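Exercise 7.
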Amino acid sequence: MPRRHRLCALVLLCLAGCTGVPEGVEPVRDFELSRYLGTWYEIARLDHSFERGLSRVTATYSRHEDGGVKVVNRGYDAESKRWKEAVGRAYFVDEPDVGRLKVSFFGPFYGAYNVIALDEDYRWSLVVGPTRDYLWILARSPELPDDTVADLVERARVLEFPTEELIFVSHEL
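Solution. The predicted structure, written as tokens, is:
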């Protein structure tokens, strides 16, 4: 295989991995996008540069004009004393009743958004990326009962996510 083709194959393989699901983890079934739309508060997350130092983080999902999902992530950076916002688009990877989407905030590059646990009333959600380095606990309100948070952390721990590294997000003014 020519070097150029090997490079293209490697790039495609890497991009495909960015929208994957960690081994042994399954996205939820019977997912209803219409019920998932709206604002979610970040309760806890694993640390990443794109959210480092942010508090009062929310994600708001709405229908995008092209049939996908408009994603608006917003958080407060206390150091710079300003709000930071990222706007992106998401699309289903599989069937629309499976909580597995790919999301992009820049160009043709997508990352995985896998809903792996979801309250039957859509009050909380456990979301992971393509590897065990990405984990978010989301809720419809800025706080969740302690026992619910503990249960979600335990679910993630059993799935071998590094829950001891979770950052619990403040929503206080």
